What we know:
Blueprint: H1 3-13, E1 16-21, E2 30-33, E3 36-39, H2 41-53, E4 59-60, E5 66-67, E6 75-82, H3 95-106, E7 117-125, E8 135-142
Parallel strand pairs: 6-7
Antiparallel strand pairs: 1-8, 2-3, 4-5, 6-8
Amino acid sequence: MDxxxxxxxxxxxxxxxxxxxxxxTANLYWRKFRNRMVRSAVxxxxxxxxxxxxxxxxxxxxxxxLRPLFQTEPVAVTVKWYxxxxxNHQRQGDLDNRLKVLLDALQDSVYTSDGQVVELHAxxxxxxxxxxxxxxxxxxxxxxx
Length: 145
């Protein structure tokens, strides 16, 4: 089955599978501009990349707008971070600093608000030498009470 067909099947089941680039660290997320805190250019670029890569999981409304697959229901998120090589060919970065950026980027793309995330499983995976820039495998499913 081709990837596009799989995404349609997943949407019917209410499952989102994404392979995303490694997000910037939370330390680079906010910048001060004219006495206000604004999202940095790096963070904005990452959010836009996630928006494009998750486009197949958004729904079209009758008035032509796009909306996330999960509007109000609670969701469970599983993240596997294959940590890429950083400067000096060392693996760098903390899992928790990447998660906030990732969850914020998924907001309005996959779910309406990151407040909908009621269950979170996160794993940092080192040792795969083929991963140079790092990547995130993300699964989002509705959380059944």
